[in-house]
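Q: What does the predicted 3D structure of Pyridoxal phosphate-dependent aminotransferase family protein look like?
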Amino acid sequence: MVKKLHEKIAQFQDANMIRAQGLYPFFRPIESGQDTEVIINNQRVLMFGSNSYLGLTNHPKIKEATKKAIDKYGSGCAGSRFLNGTLDIHIDLENRLAKYVGKESAVLFSTGFQVNLGVLSCITGRNDYLILDEYDHASIIDGCRLSFSKVIKYAHNDMNDLERKLSILPEEAVKVVVVDGIFSMEGDIVKLPQIVALADKYGANIMVDDAHSLGVIGVNGSGTASHFNLTDKVDLIMSTFSKSLASLGGFIASDHDTIDYIKHRARSLMFSASMTPGSVASVLAALDIIEAEPERIAKLWDNTNYAVKLLTDEGFDLGASESPILPIYIRDNAKTFQVTNYLQNAGVFVNPVVSPAVPSDSSLLRFSLMATHTFAQIEEAVDKLIAAFKVVGVDNIKEKEKIQ
Ligand code: PMP
């Protein structure tokens, strides 16, 4: 039995094939804090692969609040929210988040992934429908896999396809359209106004995953629904603390009844330990800073606009990005690994995104901005990208002569 399992697992050679070429880019150990510069292999590396959009993970006030919470409450809660794992600061944070995103109520989960697993597996039943954008995050897909409902996907951001799919569903069924607010690899923003119009027309509800939108778009960074002034039209808003909010954990916000239902049905909440005191305190402190220092979000967008200008002037293909997530399309798996490796050796960290995560003709470098980057760091990274494309011979350049 054991032998058979090992034989089966030994057939997995994807990672070894990349290792054999000396190009393996995953699980790179970082020997310093996550900031705009990190230390890898004793070398200074510019970080353009982080989700810490506001650059708050090393903020002294957040670190101080985290330490204080550990002193007061200890290092862990040793139980689920449902039983012995609820602290007063969990409730404080829930109230604060509900207000921030404009909903009646919210509940915390220990990761954003668990929010989508727990919520999507319980909110609809056998005769209902979950309708997804094909590029929705893996946690949404997996949550739907755990649901008894029927799952339908429409082509990315294609409102005609969404209407085609909605129009043939039974009128009496519950239908929930579930979308990313900002798509995590492509960086484009969901077409929420059109989705709201279609949801009204066909009697569907809407859930938005704001993992990459919180702290980035909307009033004071309060997310996608706020960005479009459509908060009342979105039924459920989830997000994570692992990106702009500099911590770990996640939440879902909605009306009182829906949140109460989720608290008594979502298994990844009820049967998993609650967020640690330190994680909760760091989110509360991050929210204080976002409120007190709106210039951080403005700087994130200045940096984004500056990087977009430099990159598009050089002919890089950034797809349809509208956010600090810039997909730099290479459209060739092998060259994407080679460019990532060249950049790592040259002192720039970016994330390669290759098939099967995206179709092989869509492989890309995921280049993401932080509020704490300087223009000089962005210039250095772009110069090194230009050199990497030349050395590797990437031809997916719009104005090729500029790169040669
Ligand atoms: N949704 C989206 C769109 C994400 O990108 C992620 C994280 N990559 C998650 C959910 C899960 O969040 P967490 O990291 O808190 O598990």
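A (community wiki): The structure tokens above were generated from the sequence. Confidence is low (pLDDT under 50) at residues 400-404. The radius of gyration is 22 Å.
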